[in-house]
Amino acid sequence: MARKSQTEMAVLGALGVAPMTGYALRRAIHEVLGHFWSESFGQIYPTLSRLEADGLVVRSGTQRSAPYSITEAGLHRLRELLGQPVQQVPPRNGLMLRLFFGRQLGPDRCQQLVREARQQAEQQLVQFEAIRAEMATEPETGADHQYWFITIAAGEHAARATIDWADETTAALARIGATP
Amino acid sequence: MARKSQTEMAVLGALGVAPMTGYALRRAIHEVLGHFWSESFGQIYPTLSRLEADGLVVRSGTQRSAPYSITEAGLHRLRELLGQPVQQVPPRNGLMLRLFFGRQLGPDRCQQLVREARQQAEQQLVQFEAIRAEMATEPETGADHQYWFITIAAGEHAARATIDWADETTAALARIGATP
DNA sequence: TGTCTCATGTAATCCGTTACATGATTGG
DNA sequence: CCAATCATGTAACGGATTACATGAGACA
Lengths: 180, 180
Hints:
homodimer; about 180 residues; mainly alpha; Arc Repressor Mutant, subunit A; two-stranded antiparallel sheet; DNA-binding
């Protein structure tokens, strides 16, 4: 029951915003929650089946492409899940691991890794800007928007922090490279 | 071979700094790499056995508590592993997921989550300060230190970003709460 | 003597991705 | 009509955690 409910939370939460097929669900999670969440088909479809069996979601029709909608019971369960304590996943940052053992890798290879990280962060900032712009064109889900901005802001802060750190680190590595 | 080598990298990398038993290895990873990496006994012991069979590490003696050391072949393999592209894990940020669906949770519960995140970040900053202080007392592994500071700096930047974001978000949520 | 930490190992289990299979629908 | 996309599902696999079992050494 432990982490499985995390997928439930994502699925119910998304259906709480708008009815969707499993396929659309996965795309939405990828595109909208992509910078802090991910789900695969292998998780989504079995979860949807279970949720439907439990009466937490329903399909509008009998057709293949009938979208799922969240029920009252589903909304109740969603609020219950959201209220549970946040379980933090054990961290696994491959970049930091490499830099920690940077002596084995040498300053130049480390520089490259840091440059890549910086570029990635910059691209993220651009994407966040695009999301903000796109959201401004959809006035429908206004009540949700305020909360979505919060998660975007978190991404922006994190990206900017990465950029600042990368610049500092580039300078530090240059010093290491100069005096080996 | 894919992700398993990540554990190999952590184990070989740690043994590249100093010889250790599996037990000490796990504690070292927890305490020193804790903010960006984690390994459990269930991973460490089988990995050590494999590495020993492959001649990448050796035990100094035959006793139970004999520490493992990295071999020349092990060092070679370590550098090879460190050179591989960083594989990013699919993100799963439970806090962001909850905030994204914050409308269901309400502004007050969200405030609480943000407060907790802020406190956690503050504690991390304190811990980083402690690590810096501790490292200053061990002049032995000086060549590694420069790289370790880089990962600490990353942690500090991230923590400060979280604090800034939390303060902004607290204000934003207060506005939402005032005009629902 | 008994308890705490050190130390090693393994089996159960869970979560999740990947890959594959299958077919309907749409648009050029 | 054919390709691309939409849509659903499942089987295989892998990686990681958790929990448990076991025992040695230290020390009070």
